[in-house]
Design goal:
The chain is mostly helical. Helix content is 61%, strand content 6%.
Amino acid sequence: MTALERSGLGRRGPPLASIESLLSFEAKSTPRSEFGVLASDNMGGGNLTRLSDWGRMETVLSVDDFQSLTGERQSEEIFKLLAMLSPFAGEVSNLKGSIDAALGRISELDGRNRLTGNLMKSERSEKDFLPEEENDTDVPMMGNFRDPESPHSATPLLPEIHAPDPFIIQKSRQLNRRVTLNVGGVRHEVMWKMLEQVPRSRLGKLVQASTHEQILGLCDTYSLVDNEYFFDRHPRSFNSILNFYRTGKLHVIDEMCVLAFSDDLEYWKIDEVFLESCCQNKYNTRKEHVIEEMKKEANNIKKEVEEDFGTGKFVKYQICLWDLIEKPHTSMAAKVISVISIAFVVVSTVGMTLNTMPAIQHRDAEGNAIDNPKLALIEAVCISWFTIEYLLRFAGSPQKWEFVKGAMNVIDVLAILPYYVSLFLMGDEEVSLTTTTVAPGPTISPEEEGTSFDDVRRIIQVFRIMRIMRIFKLARHSTGLQSIAFTLKNSYKELGLLMLFLAMGVLIFSSLCYFAEKDEADTGFTSIPASFWWAIITMTTVGYGDISPTTGLGKLIGTGCAISGVLVMA
C-alpha cells in the first residue's frame, strides 16, 4: 500500500450530510505540497505520488459493482474516490470566488446600464425625435437589449440546480442518524428513528420520503448539506408536537388559541384522538365554544351584508327607518326610541299585574270583575305603540318574509294579538246580548245562555293570559337575555338528557310507589299518572306534602326517589 493509499484510508472522517461536506473534510485533513500533489506519510523519503500516476493506479467502480460490495468495502471505495478528488477542492473554491467576483462585476454593469438607459430615455422625451410607438422599443446598452424600466436584470440566467438523486438522499439518511427540523426559524435536533413512531404523521412520512418531490410535498425546503428541513409554520405549538413523538402523550398549550392549535394538528397530520384525557374535555369544550361564537358572529355579519334594500325611489328613507327602529347603536334618536320601547313594555307589564288586584278592579252591574278603566286606557296606549312599532319595522325591513319568520317578531305578534282578539270576542259578546233581548226567536234556557257566555269568557281569559308574552320583548333590547337564549339553544342536548333522566326516574318511582300504596285507605296514589306529581316534586326536592306514602315500603321508595333526584339534578 502506497503512502497516498494510507493517507486516504488511514483516516476516517465523521459521518456528514453529503459528498460536498466529505470533500471539504478530506481537502482540509490531507496534506499537500505547494505543487498540488499529495504528500506521502513517509516524510523522510520524500516520495510524492502525482495525480496522473494515481489515476493510472486506481480504477473507479461502476454503480452496480459498488452496490454489490459490503458496507465496509463501500466505505473504503468512497474514501479512495475522495482521495482522488481532494486536489480539486482548492480549485473549486477558487472557481467559486471567481464566479462571485464575476457576478459582482455583472451587477455593477447592470446598475450602470440602468442609469444610462434612464438618461437616454429622458433625453429622447425632451427632444421628441421619435414617435410614441418607437419610444417603447428596447435600447442597446453594453451589448444587452432590454427595457430600462424592467425589474429583471439583463444578465444571463445561472445554471439550474438539479434535484438530488434518490441515492444521495438515501446515503445522507444512512450517514446521519440525527436531523435538524427548522420550524419557523427555531431549530430542533432529533433522531430519525424517533420520527418513525408516528408513521402517518407529516414527519413520519418525511422519514419514508426518498425522492426530491416527496420531500418538497412534506416540507417547504431542505438542505442535504446542512441536514436540515424547513417548515414555514409558527413554532409555538411544535414543542407539544415534538413531545408527542418523544413520549407518546399529546397535551394542549393553554396560552394558544384552540383553533390555531387544531390547525397545527391538522398540518402535522396528528389526530385529535391522541390528546390526553386531562386535555381532551378542555380542548373540545373550548373549541365548540369558539366555533359557536364564530358562527354567531358570522351570522350577524351575514345579516348585515345581506340587507339588500333594492334600488327603489324610497330606498334611502327605508334604510333610515330600519336603522332608527332596529339598530339602537346607529344614532342618538335610535337609542331614544329603544328606551321608549322598553318603558312601554315595563309599564304595560306592571299595569297588567296591578289589574288583577281586587282592590283596583271594578265590578259590572252583575258583580263580575272588570278591568280598571284607567289601567285599560294605559293598556290601549301601550298596545297602540307596539302595533305602530311593529308596522314601522315591517315597512323598513329589507326582506319582508324573513322579517315575519324572525323569532323576536313572532313574539311581538303574540304580545299584540291577544288584545285585539279579546276586543273582538268582547264585541261579539255584547252583540249577542243585544240580539237575544231584541230579536224574536226560539226560547233559550238560562242554563244554555250562561254556558255560552262562560265559554266566551274563558276564551277571552286565555288570550288575556297570553299578554304575558310581551315581557319577552325585552330580549330585543337586552344582550343578557339574548345570551341566556343562546346558551339554552346550544345546550339543548344536555337539557334533553337531563329531562330524559328525570322522566325515567318519575316513571320508575311513581309506579313502585303506586303498587306499594294502592291498597291503603284514603291513599292519594290512585293511579300511576296520579303518582307522577308526587315523584316530580320529590325528585326536584320541593315536597309540598299534599301527597305522601304511609307504608314502610312506600317510605323506602320515597327515600330512594329523593336521593335519585338530588343526584340527577346536581
